[in-house]
Amino acid sequence: MIIGGCGRVGLPLGIALASRGMPVILYDINESAVATVNRGVLPFGEPDAAEPLATAVRDERLRAVTDPARVAEAETVVVIVGTPVDEHLNPDIGAVPRAIEQVADHLRDGQLLILRSTVHPGVTALAEKVLASRGLDIDVAFCPERIAEGRAMTELFSLPQIVAARSERAYRRSETFFRTLTEQTVRLAPEEAELAKLFTNTWRYIKFAAANQFWVMANDAGLDFDRIRNAITHDYPRAADLPGPGFAAGPCLFKDTMQLAAFSRNNFPLGHSAMLVNEGLPLYLADRLETRYDLSGLTVGILGMAFKAGSDDPRASLSFKLRKILALKARETLCSDPYVTDDRFLPLDEVLARADLLVIGAPHPEYRDLSTRAPVVDIWGISGRGMLV
After folding, report:
1. Is 228 exposed, middle or buried (0-12, 13-18, 19+ CB in 10 A)?
2. Residue 77 three-state SS
3. In 3D, which of 242, 233, 352, 344 has the Cα closest to residue 300?
4. Do 13 and 88 form a contact (C-beta atoms < 8 A)?
5. DSSP state string for 333-379
6. Quick one: pLDDT band at residue 171, thresholds 50, 70, 90?
7. pLDDT score of 311
8. How far apart are CA 260 and CA 294, in angstroms?
9. What residues pair up with 332 in beta bridges, in sequence order?
């Protein structure tokens, strides 16, 4: 049983487990997503997941439900729910306990409960307290998801799985469960694993911030960072992990950096600086455009509203932040995306025909060979026109 099983983390996990012959029940409160999954159709894009989902549904190895009572049937219950930060950038430490409380009447002694969401340190212990307060004898483990969207059906089978539990029995059961998917597991204490996941996402966020700050420095000097980065990374292994610039967004990296900041009592200047750089990039870009162009007389087209290349996920995409800024500055702002469905978006051909200036918001492969009369602003370097703005 996977709670939150029709989402972008839960559904790939369910498909992967079903593909290894395990019977899987997906519990979700999203009735539309449940109905879609039960037709054997993905409710979102995930490469290489469509066929195994259809097969698993056809062979009755996977079923989605909206009835929480089905939790009682499961030997193993995996909890996957969103763990946002609030408007004050404080973590919602109650998200996972609330999810457990909502199904607690259907939990039973002897089950294994695996927390999969990225959580603030201490949430696993809080979940254990919730179960103990109800007199339930349930093994609890924290095994954070580690996949990247678009790579789930590869990484679920190839990446080592972190397994953290307080008791030996909970650890052994959790490790056996995940060895269905991967040969490698890494054992930690729950609090160590909670930090390990936050450190992982924050490290990526900081690296993106460094690349974006470098790009701003080069750009302010009138130099093309694309050429500089290529020189730095060419056959030089110590710089191989320097990413390119671009909008560092999505539902995880910023949020988890702020969770880590809260854990450190906001004594995390590196994380806060990364936030200022990454979240400030749309503002910097708009300011540069305003310096170079009379935006008040131009129609600006933003190409790509997803938070990453090749994705249909617009959550926390900084392209939307750029659109809000340009709405105050440009004559008109048009948006297009080949993957994200939104009534406000226009087909690419129409945006190319109407726009006086184009900005690549997400580096989708469809934008590699644009044929357009309008200038193209491309901080990602995907169009081959350099990154200078």
Report:
1. middle
2. strand
3. 352
4. no
5. EEEE-SS---TT---HHHHHHH-SEEEESS--GGGTT---SS-EE-T
6. very high
7. 96
8. 41
9. 299
The reported pTM is: 0.95
Please identify which residue in the block is written with the tokens 């988890």: 256
Backbone Cα Rg of the chain: 23
Q: Across all residues in the chain, what is the average pLDDT?
A: 96
User: End-to-end distance of the chain based on CA atoms, in angstroms?
Assistant: 50
Closest CA to 386 of 274, 273, 222: 222
> Tokens 């290349």 — which residue?
309
In the numeric block, which tokens belong to residue 270? 């590196």
Give phi and psi for 211, each to the nearest 5.
-65, -40
User: Residue 227 CB: number of other CB atoms within 10 A?
Assistant: 14
What confidence score (pLDDT) does residue 271 get?
A: 98
Give the position of tokens 């997400």. Answer: 362
Strand order across the beta sheet in which 357-360 lies: 332-336, 299-303, 357-360, 376-377
> pLDDT of 201-244, one tens digit each?
999 999 999 999 999 999 999 999 999 999 999 999 999 999 99
CB 182 within 8 A of CB 145: no
Q: What is the rounded distance in angstroms from the CA atom of residue 304 to the CA atom of residue 361? A: 5
* Integer Cα distance of 109 and 137 in angstroms: 5
Q: How many residues are there in the chain?
A: 389
CA angle 231, 235, 240 (to 5 degrees): 80
